[in-house]
């Protein structure tokens, strides 16, 4: 039986709770591939390995994306401005990884955005990524001022690929500091590709750029094992 008889690139696939993901070529022009499914650890890991990630708002069904082109950062192309070099040199923040994952994802969920009033980090998303963290796949990075969490980010790592999910900042430059130090640390550990998923001017200023999805998937297949 054909599981997806009517799907076209303009019609997202409807997933049952345990349906397999369809080919990413079925994504629409915004990258939307499928709606539904679940947020189990095994499902999320399957999605990341196929170049797919969840992204949806509160009170909406789970939406899965695989945009083309893909916005990424190669660690060797990281751009550190003179102002951020000064921030790092002055020791305004201290850095850690995996010290307060739940605090970071909570900060990402609660911080006010410059657009809209909601958040894509629902309670279900938060619980799902805490589960990934406890299984050793999700990681956080923290920027501290003394004992105060000033900013940070979290994401998922598979092999030599890190998938950035969200960042937040309570102090000026805290998220940039956390991102820069994370990229430097991941590069030291052998990570060769950072998936930024979707474009932001903030990440572009740090060296992010677009590559074709086909190139991203080829790198993913080679580096994520």
Which helices and strands, and how do they pair?
Blueprint: E1 13-15, E2 32-36, H1 41-49, E3 53-54, E4 63-65, E5 70-73, H2 82-90, E6 94-97, H3 101-110, H4 123-134, E7 138-145, E8 148-158, E9 161-169, H5 174-188, E10 193-197, H6 201-204, E11 209-211, H7 213-223
Parallel strand pairs: 1-2, 9-10
Antiparallel strand pairs: 2-4, 3-4, 5-10, 5-11, 6-7, 7-8, 8-9
The fold-level CATH name of the largest domain is Aminopeptidase
Q: What would CATH call the class of the largest domain?
A: Alpha Beta
Which strands sit side by side, in order, in the main sheet? 6-7-8-9-10-5-11
H and E order: EEHEEEHEHHEEEHEHEH
In whole angstroms, the N-to-C terminal distance is 32 Å
By CATH, the architecture of the largest domain is named 3-Layer(aba) Sandwich
> SS-based structural class?
alpha+beta
* Chain-averaged pLDDT: 92
- How many domains make up the coordinates? 2
**Rg estimate, integer Å:** 17 Å
Q: What coarse outline follows from CA principal-axis ratios?
A: globular
Poorly predicted ranges: 1-8
Instruction: Bin the strand percentage.
Output: 25-35%
Question: Can you walk me through this structure?
Answer:
Helices cover 31% and strands 25% of the residues. With 225 residues, the protein is α+β, with helices and mostly antiparallel strands. The protein folds into 2 domains: 13-66, 2-Layer Sandwich (Alpha-Beta Plaits); 71-223, Leucyl/phenylalanyl-tRNA-protein transferase, C-terminal domain (Aminopeptidase), CATH 3.40.630. The protein has a 7-stranded mixed sheet, sandwiched between helices. Strands 1-2-4-3 form a 4-stranded mixed sheet, with helices on one face. Strand 7 and strand 8 (148-158) form a beta hairpin. Helix 3 (101-110) packs antiparallel against helix 4 (123-134).
